[in-house]
Amino acid sequence: MAKASQQSHRKDEHVFLAEKFHDDDRRNDFDHVHFIHNSLPELDIDQVSIGTKLGNDALRSPFYINGMTGGSPRTGKINRQLAEIAALTGIPMASGSQTIALAEPDLADTFKVIRQYNPSGFVLGNIGAGHGVEDAKKAIAMIDANALEIHVNAAQEIVMPEGDREYHWLDNIDQIVHHVDVPIIVKEVGFGMSRESIQQLAEIGVKMIDVSGRGGTNFIKIENERRHEKDFGFMSAWGQSTVQSLLEAHSADTDAQIIASGGVRNPLDIVKSLRLGASAVGVSGEILHSLLHGDPTDTAAMIMSWLGQIQDLLLLLGARNLDELHTKDIYFDPELVNYLQQRDIHL
Ligand SMILES: Cc1cc2nc3c(=O)[nH]c(=O)nc-3n(C[C@H](O)[C@H](O)[C@H](O)COP(=O)(O)O)c2cc1C
Questions:
Q1: Do residues 51 and 60 lie in contact, with contact meaning Cβ atoms separated by under 8 Å?
Q2: Which residue stretches of the chain are H helix?
Q3: For substrate, which residues are the binding ones (predicted)?
Q4: CA 206 to chain centre
Q5: Which of 41, 111, 236, 340 is 20 to 30 A distant from 193 in Cα terms?
Q6: Distance 205 CA to ligand 1 centre (A)
Q7: 208 CB less than 6 Å from ligand 1?
Q8: Distance, CA of 169 to CA of 156 (rounded, Å)
C-alpha cells in the first residue's frame, strides 16, 4: 500500500484544486481563431482520415490524455481508470510525473496500472527536468513507456509553497535526448513557450515539444491556493496562451514537431490547434473533469464522440487529412493580430 508522503498529498490537492477551478464557460484564445466556412466540401466522411504521426509512430487519434496523475492511492485509481479509457478508445495516454515513485518506490504501483490496464496502448512516461538519464530510464521501464515527457515547470515551482529555486535543466534534457532510446517530448505545464525557448530546446536536439499554454488548468492559481498567504494571485495571467505559443513556434527556426495542450475544451479547439501547426494535441483538465463527474465509460463515450466530431470538422472544411487542413483559411481577432505584430511573427 502506498504511503502518504507530503508529495503524495500534493498530487491529491492538485486534482482537487484543478477540479475546483474548472469552469465550463471558460473562454480562451481558441475563441479568437476562426475558420472560413466552406459551403462545398465535395468529400464524403469515408475519405477523411484524422491519423497523425509522433516521430516515427503512427497514431490513429490526433489527441491524447496528457500527463496528470499517480503518486497517491487516489490518483493511482484515476490512472487505472484513465488507462481503461485509453484502452477502450485507443487514444494515447501520458502518466503524471513519476518523480515521486523514484524517491518512494512503493508508490510505483500507482503508475504501473497505466500499463497493466492498457497493455498494448501508446503510453508516455513523465518526469521533471531536474532528472538525469538513469531516472529517465527507470521511469520508462516502470510503465514500459513508448515515449517520455519531460516537464519544465518553473512558473509552477515559483508559486508552489515547497517549490525549487534551482532551474538548470538544459544539460539534463540534452543528456536524456541523446542517451534514451524512446522519443522525448519536452513539455510545459500550462504557461506556454516562446520561440526562444522552442529554439533552445531544438538546438540541443529535442524533436518534440508540447508548448502546453495558458487557457485551461492554471498551476499558478492551484499552487497559490496551497499557500498560507495566497500572495501570488497577481500572477494568475502569467504565460503565453496555447494559441500564442503555436504562433511563436511558427517563427522558430526548427523542424521539431510541435504538440499543443492547455485549455483544449472540445473538438474544435483540437482542429484549430492542428491547423495552427500542432502534430498532436494533449488534453488534461477537460478529461479529468469528465471522469470526476461520471464513470470511465462516460469519459470513453465522450472521447469516441470527439474522434467522430474531429472527422466531421475536417469533412466540413473539405480536408481529407491533416496536411490538407493546413491549407484551410483562418482569421484572427484583433488581440491575436496585435500579438503577431508585437512579436514580429509572419505567417
Ligand atoms: C491534476 C493535474 C495534474 C497534473 N500533473 C502533471 C504532471 O505530473 N506532469 C506534467 O507534465 N503535467 C501535469 N499536469 C499538466 C498537464 O499535463 C497540462 O500541461 C496542463 O494541465 C494544461 O492542460 P489542460 O488545460 O488541458 O489541463 C497536470 C494537470 C492536472 C490537471
A1: yes
A2: 6-21, 73-89, 99-103, 109-116, 133-143, 154-159, 170-179, 195-203, 219-226, 242-250, 267-275, 285-292, 296-317, 322-325, 334-342
A3: 10-11, 156
A4: 16
A5: 111
A6: 24
A7: no
A8: 15
Ligand 1 pocket, residue 264 CB under 6 Å: yes
Interacting residues of 201 by C-beta distance below 8 A, sequence separation 6+ = 173, 186, 209, 256
The number of C-alpha atoms within 13 Å of 137 and in the hemisphere containing its C-beta is 8
Pocket test residue of 15, 63, 66 for ligand 1, highest count of atoms within 8 A of CB = 66
Residues 298-316 pLDDT 10s: 999 999 999 999 999 999 9
Q: 218 CB less than 6 Å from ligand 1?
A: no
pLDDT one-digit tens code per residue, 241-299: 999 999 999 999 999 999 999 999 999 999 999 999 999 999 999 999 999 999 999 99
Place of cell 536524456: 176
Is 289 near ligand 1, meaning CB less than 6 Å away? Answer: no
CATH for 26-342 (3.10.129.10, 3.30.565.10, 3.20.20.70, 3.40.50.720): 3.20.20.70
Residue 206 CB-half CA count within 13 A:
29
